[in-house]
């Protein structure tokens, strides 16, 4: 078995999950700098094996990773064992043990299943690996140091721990404890047995006295039972009489309470009505105050609106006058702008004609200049050339330059023509747009939005008037409904006042019970003609208030409910049930009933029905039975109003339904009117919004027209400029073409000019020069005229710009502002008018409501006064009834107290008889014999006198033990049981003494055996570490001092007097374990631990540690920096020792099984024997583990 995988996360310095999956079955070495987390590897393995106590929150927090104030919420360590050898007692080739903790929990998992720590300890102990008993296979740094500083006594304790001697100490201590308990029990039994012997002697005397007292006691008991029985019978008879009297009082009390309940209900109802009247009166007064305040506010607002209307009218007049003035100014400015525009057009036409004429003169002048230059060149006044070639070269250069200029001018001319065309198109578009905008403005001026606004305002006012009238109608209908409801309630109250007491409460609770099969009162289901109602009511009587149910089962359920409710409320409830199955009838039943009850015109005819055994009733309510008994003679119809009031209430219920329907219809109409009002208000808002948007649109159109006119003016100026440039470019093109043609003509001549002109050519030259002068003068005059026209056009253009850009725009803005102001004034005027009209209607309604409420106040005040007197009278009746009920209660309580007294006497007699019966268990027959002897003739006084005599005789025997016989037999049995227990404890004490002696022997043998085994391994291990040295261990015995020996002998002498003596307690035979070593070949000079240096002590401690481990032979060695304090020579030997653990010599004597070693070190010696190495480092405040393949490179690096 070996550890093959280790995984941990959140444990101490290991923040992230770290897993080692390839642990070797041999030597595994961990290296790393101080603080990197090497020791936490061994702590984690110890933690997973069940060490590292985590029983409280503080301990668990110490195990969780923490950095910079942040702590991990949980941690786990998981180790995987290779169990292919089956050393762990489970049927698994691989075992996974996982331990997880949080701040609040600590759990174990074994192969993925949650287990308890005890189970883990059991499995690990079976494999020889546990932190519970032997922890020397996990060697931390401090353990070696502690071994070097052990005393001889501490090493003896260590030997005991390793050998398991503590088990014997525990068992010996338990045996001694049992022995001590046995001794104490034996002493207690002896004391108890002595006490029992004394009691047995006294109980023998008590038996004789008991026989005498029992005879007197039987006679006393018989007399007491007779007296108690007679007392009981007399008290019971008196209780019956008192209960009859109390029942009579209770019946009277029930009647008075029923009357009180009815009157109290009436009083409560009258008080409720009085409270409602007071509430209505207060509400009416509050409403009057509110309406008065509202009338004041409405009047003030009406006056304020009237004054505001006058101001709005004056403002409207001012706005109208200002709008007229601004419009006149705007028209003047527009007319002036048109005049200026026409002047511009005329001037531009004149300029165009002058420019055309100017261009014509310039073209003619250019042709004359060309002709003159040609003639002048021929005459020799032009440039001179050396040859024709030279001339042609120079002329060719001129042609090229003029051709290039011609191309440039033609390109500019094309661009100007395109720009002129675009300007003409834009001028046409702007002209059309201006016409469209002006047409829209004229169409808008023809619309009448103001009329629509006035119509909408009028419709809103009419709708509000209709709403006000409909609200008045609804108020009147609700008052009528309240009056009908009040009248119906009064009629129903009058009907219920004729009902028996507590019937109404019982009926109300029954209808609220939710029981199926209840159909209401009988009166609700009767339909009788008005002329027969009196006779029907007289015949029916109080049965009209019977409740109809389906059958007897439903009736029983109703009665049970009424009884429970009556007990719960503590007041009487009454209800009479009539199952429908009892009133089902057929035609035969109807005819039979008709033959028994007859409607007669008067009692005289009714007297003739007696011979036919028929009952009769008149329409006036007089009745006569078939036996001749007559009732009536005069029946007051005012006393029989149940049916009349009930039917009237049902008619009123129909009126209530009709009134509610009318109210609902009126409210629906009111809702429709309010919806219409809301729609009209929305329409008004929309009209105002439309008017505003149209004003804004008109202002926008005016602004667009102005902007378009400005843009049109700019385009016309641009077009004019383009036309002028076009004419100039055309003239230049013509001139260039003529020049090029003349030069080319000259280039075609074969000879140079001779310099002499003919007469005709001379004449042509003179004419050309004269024409040139004339044309030049004409061109200058035309230029002056063009300049004058351009100045005039510039002035007109400036005026047009001023009118369009400044004056007309300012006037348009003023006009727009005034129009908006007039629209606002119009809206405010209409709103004010509508509000004034609404206020006038509200004031009228308030005045009418105030008048009605004042009348209502007077009426309520009178009704309240009358109702108050009624409440006072009912209160006086209630007080009188309460006094009468109080007297009846007092009388009833007196009777109940008397009954309780007699009942108590009966109970006392019963208790006395029961007590006598309990005392007579076993002797009841003898008491009955004594009772028969007394007889009925003996008076109670005589019995009491004899009872006193019996008590006096019994007082002569005050200390009689009535249980002497039973106690004697009990104590005798106890005495025998104690004798048997004493014998058993004596034999048990001998067995415990033998067990203690055996445990002491086994303990000594085990210590000596373990010592010999560890001493042998110690010497061999030391020899491996120090080949020239030797070592041995000595078991030091404890010497007994003389005083101790004498004391021991004295105890033995004392124990001889006892029948069974306890085993002597033997002191520890050994005082400690000493160690002697030598580091040289000289065996004669052995040194003890205190004589050695630090490194040598460490060598001895390591040898002792491995001696213990070799004796235990654990499967796993966990060594944390054990070689830290060893010198170099010993570290090499220690490395060889580690290697021998994983690879034991098979030729050695009893070679141990190989074990896995996991160790950490700073030194390279131990790494030389490592089968696998790992480097532990700290990265970002968290430990990391990496596989290390080259230890030499690592030690060179660190």
TrEMBL record:
<dbReference type="InterPro" id="IPR003395">
    <property type="entry name" value="RecF/RecN/SMC_N"/>
</dbReference>
<feature type="domain" description="SMC hinge">
    <location>
        <begin position="516"/>
        <end position="610"/>
    </location>
</feature>
<dbReference type="GO" id="GO:0005524">
    <property type="term" value="F:ATP binding"/>
</dbReference>
<dbReference type="GO" id="GO:0051276">
    <property type="term" value="P:chromosome organization"/>
</dbReference>
<dbReference type="Pfam" id="PF02463">
    <property type="entry name" value="SMC_N"/>
</dbReference>
<feature type="coiled-coil region">
    <location>
        <begin position="649"/>
        <end position="686"/>
    </location>
</feature>
<feature type="coiled-coil region">
    <location>
        <begin position="836"/>
        <end position="919"/>
    </location>
</feature>
<dbReference type="GO" id="GO:0005694">
    <property type="term" value="C:chromosome"/>
</dbReference>
<keyword id="KW-0175">Coiled coil</keyword>
<feature type="coiled-coil region">
    <location>
        <begin position="179"/>
        <end position="494"/>
    </location>
</feature>
<dbReference type="InterPro" id="IPR027417">
    <property type="entry name" value="P-loop_NTPase"/>
</dbReference>
<protein>
    <recommendedName>
        <fullName>SMC hinge domain-containing protein</fullName>
    </recommendedName>
</protein>
<dbReference type="InterPro" id="IPR036277">
    <property type="entry name" value="SMC_hinge_sf"/>
</dbReference>
<feature type="coiled-coil region">
    <location>
        <begin position="726"/>
        <end position="799"/>
    </location>
</feature>
<dbReference type="Pfam" id="PF06470">
    <property type="entry name" value="SMC_hinge"/>
</dbReference>
<dbReference type="InterPro" id="IPR010935">
    <property type="entry name" value="SMC_hinge"/>
</dbReference>
